[in-house]
Amino acid sequence: MRRALTNTGWLMGARGVNAVLSIVYLAIATRLLGPDDFGLFVIAFTFAQIVAGFCSFQTWQAIIRWGQDEGGRRTATGFAVALDFAAIAAGVVIAALALALFANTLLLPAELRWPTFAFTVASLLAIRSTPTGLLRLHDRYDRAAYADATTSMVRAAGAVLVMFLDPTILSFLLVWGVAEIATAVVYWWLAARTEPIDLARISLTRLPREHPDAWGFVWGTSLTASLAIASRQLLVLLVGVLGGAALAGIYRVASQLGEGLLKLAQALLRAVYPELVRNPDTASALVGKIVRIAVVTGVAVVMLGLVLGEWIIIVVAGREFVAATVPMIVLAGAASIELVGASLEALLVARGRAIANFVTRAIPLTIGLLSLPWLLQWFGVTGAALVILGTSLVTVTALAVLTRRMRG
């Protein structure tokens, strides 16, 4: 428990730095670009994140699962690196085809298509799940925290420069791309210092030969991560396609400010998962303690949003984005529910039930996305936030039932 909370603390330290700096660059971008141009920037940025997220694998979980001894660690790392190479190649092809066929649907003007493709390639090259796994395996969450902070530091500094030099969508995309590459470089450098990577072990076949369930585990964890991207990033893109660029920008502001607890949930999942793999006998007790902490934290944050939500929106983004207030509070509620479910999900994956976890998330998310056009029509941008709230509520309830049956 102590080690899990310490590692969560390191992750949240980086998240805290990122949260503060994200307010800085979010305030600069929204004020300089305005709702329409900021919405176009959000669409370009979100497209890149979707491609990178759908194509990448959660290789860090494979490294922790099969890397507890030196030989297994080298094999799992080589498998992870090979998957990263395959993800980059596939992502470049998918991005080119998607922009060629659907750029008009995505509301991207001609002058933004090549910059969007270039930013997508930068996001693919910045895939860093493998070095993340090596650092977590060795409990070097401190080094991972330093690397994570790089993204927001570069974005904030770049946004300040852009403010004085050239406040355009292209400039912000350039800064965001540099931030992605810089973060990946720092991650790989720190991981190599922690444990050198054996290039001779890079292979897509060696680990599956030794562990026949490897592909099932990798696909299960990666598909689940893709669902997380669909529920957040894809939703932003759909809001833009269905409601216009300005609406996408408003929803992005709401999600940026309202889903702070989601980042805590993700940090908790990443910190607790290694402990559940190492100590299966005490896993249930650890999960129970963390769930109780999560409930108290989630309630406190939602109450804070109810009291200060509109003021926060006006201070950070300006009165033009005040429509993001109610969606922000709804998303804070959804993130609170996800925080409670994070340790339940970690327990399910640690017991090898990655596919069950994927199905548990896939069904309610699919229903939510299909209902998005009607919810947008009835409730505006708040309807998109309700998709996330409903999905989180159903998913975490199902996770609780599954883990309870598993323990029984």
What does this structure look like?
It is found in: Cell membrane. The chain crosses the membrane at residues 12-32, 38-57, 78-102, 114-134, 235-254, 293-315, 321-342, 354-372, 378-402. This is Polysaccharide biosynthesis protein. Pfam families: Polysacc_synt (PF01943). The protein has 408 residues and is mainly α. It has one domain. It contains 16 helices and no strands. Helix 1 (2-55) crosses helix 4 (110-125), helix 1 crosses helix 7 and helix 9 packs parallel to helix 14. The protein is globular, with a radius of gyration of 20 Å. It starts with a helix and ends with a helix. The mean pLDDT is 79.
Keywords:
408 residues, mainly alpha, 0% strand, Polysaccharide biosynthesis protein, transmembrane, transmembrane helix, Poly_Biosynth_Transport, cell membrane
Helices and strands in order, then pairings?
Blueprint lengths: L1 H54 L3 H8 L3 H33 L7 H16 L3 H9 L3 H25 L3 H26 L11 H5 L3 H30 L1 H14 L1 H19 L4 H34 L8 H26 L3 H17 L1 H8 L1 H27 L1
Helix pairs in contact: 1-3, 1-4, 1-6, 1-7, 1-9, 1-10, 1-11, 2-3, 2-5, 3-4, 4-7, 5-7, 6-7, 9-10, 9-14, 9-16, 10-13, 10-16, 11-12, 11-13, 12-13, 13-16, 14-16, 15-16
What would you say about this model in short?
The chain is mainly α.
Shape designation? globular
Helix % is over 70%
Whole-Å distance between the termini? 22 Å
Spell the H/E element sequence. Answer: HHHHHHHHHHHHHHHH
The biggest sheet amounts to: none
Number of strands: 0
Number of helices: 16
Give the mean pLDDT.
Answer: 79
Structural class by secondary-structure content:
mainly alpha
Radius of gyration from the CA trace?
20 Å
What is the domain total for the residues? 1
Low-pLDDT runs: none
Amount of beta strand: under 5%
Pfam families: Polysacc_synt
Transmembrane segments: 12-32, 38-57, 78-102, 114-134, 235-254, 293-315, 321-342, 354-372, 378-402
Subcellular location: Cell membrane
Keywords: Cell membrane, Membrane, Transmembrane, Transmembrane helix
